[in-house]
Structures
1.
Amino acid sequence: MIDFEYYNPAKIVFGEHSEQKLKSLLAGYGVKSLQLVYSGDFIKTLGIYDVIKDAVNELGIRFSENGNVVPNPSIDLVRELVKQGKENGVDFVLAVGGGSSIDTAKAVALGIPYEGDVWDFFEKGISPERVLPIGVIATTASSGSETSNAAILSSGEWKLGFEDDRIIPKFAIMNPKYTVGLPAYQTFVGIADVLSQEVFRYHGLSD
């Protein structure tokens, strides 16, 4: 038998049109300035972008965005987003997409309240004094980052992870229509990712 501890306070909001609950979720956290992190134009095709914009406009939330996330999220982009977030007084980070967008958002949430370089958390394993709250609208089923306490970043030379319960997202909105509509290739990649995550963890390996 393997001993373990399990802790997961992430609120799962599942179902068709579940993204429509975003406004009430943001209002509940008293968000004043939100930073949106995503990849490409798919969030506009799916209608998610309009839902987010309507919510922040109705709540009077200051809004900034970046859609340049790529697979194996980059520390360079995170540094850029941290700088932007500090300038805009961001107090909440929202990720839309899969593991790469979510891990980027987690790193940004670590970096904005921190005076040093956000890479310190990944390279030196230091413990943050404060972490901004994170929300997720998930559009893929693969890494499980929407409910995990881990983030992985790449510096180009190194790919490193960081774990802390405070980077578990406050909520994860999951509309199954988003995953049903994925291309077959992306679905297969997600299945392989899920299986590899389980195998790595069962054997105590690092991914």
Note: The CA atoms of residues 140 and 182 lie 8 Å apart.
2.
Amino acid sequence: MKRAVFLDRDGTINIEKDYLYQAEKFEFIPGAPEAICLLNQAGFMVVVVTNQSGVARGYYTEEDVEKLHLHIAGELERCGAHVDAWLYCPHHPSGRGSYALPCVCRKPLPGMLQEAARRYDIDLGSSIIIGDKQADIDAGKAAGSRTILVRTGYGANEEQLVGPDTVVCDDLLSAVKYLL
């Protein structure tokens, strides 16, 4: 079985911008590409797990999410890094149409991590999630993975919510250096 590092996207990899879906508005948090490259070199599978309620709210489409992920992948490739898998939850309880449903994939539930484990033969117990929200930490704990909160994005405001079993780091690069 593989070890993975699950990464939240907005506020962890890229600068938090409300309902980001346009490539021209995408900006890496400084050090994020280097951090992902270090994970690649260390042999971890890198899996992005991101809530994208903007789809359910009608702000953008699933195709927009996938286009942005292709853009990010291209930017990472230029830096010598890559993400092995991209998973996202398009649902929200107050969304529209078929996206307004209770699901098991929306963090803080562990559904995306469990789905990745099934698809890619990942050992959740030897894996880690890194994110900037309590929901990321809760999803990781529910999946049986170790957890790291970063202070970027919403992390500085959520730091007091995490328990002593969650490591807190300034950003993704410092989290990866801690992990390695």
Note: Residues 4-179 form a domain with the Rossmann fold fold (CATH 3.40.50.1000).
3.
Amino acid sequence: MLNAWSPLLEPPITGRRIKPRNCGLTMILDKGLTTLETKEWLDLTKNYIDLIKLTFGTSALYPEAKLREKVALIRDQGIGVFPGGTLLEIAIFQGKARDFLSKALDLGFNYLELSDGTIPLDLRTRGRIIELAVEKDFTIITEVGKKSPQDNLNTALLLQIAKFDLEHGASLVIVEGRESGKGVGIYDQNGEIEEYRLDFLAENLPQEKILWEAPLHRQQVELIKRFGPNVNLGNIPPQEVYALECLRLGLRGDTLLNTVKGEGKAQLV
């Protein structure tokens, strides 16, 4: 529905799922919006956001009362919220994973992200942390891929880890794209999609279980063209929520063009 423009206009791309949904998810990368900014922003965008990541280790820098307030505000809008996977990596490295899970639960987070983008993490430890998170009633999301281009994993190994995570209780697997969208995951050094990587993962994993980090506009366009409006996309900057939803609905030329091809000439009526 196009709100102020409904029922006069209809979305050119149909089939977009509404919340609550298990595919077509949009995950936002929050690098430090204030509570007031978050409230005003969610008043406009809450219908188009499914997940918010307080990225990197940023949640560790909030005054605790403000963090609790912000997390509660997000959850009150029916949106999942979680600290960045880097913070859990630090807890694992310091031997404090169990305590981290308890603290995250106490702070109000309802999702957790497990990654090994920086630290080495064997499958046994990975599986145990997923299971512990599920036992505490977190929705656990995992991330596959390394943050450094020099350490980028081959696609077969990415798939193996993703399947392992899902089998051990992960609800969703993020394919690493970083904030830059370059040189990691399915992207080359210029941010272009490496088709063989995309094809291999897409053919071997259920689409509703993959969240593609796609911070760049051209990446979002290509993934929507490839998989449709209900592809799961992440690492979206807060100010681009509307822009992405317009792509999903065909309200931008990038995706509208494919929709109108072959439809004949436009008519004034």
Note: The longest helix spans residues 64-76.
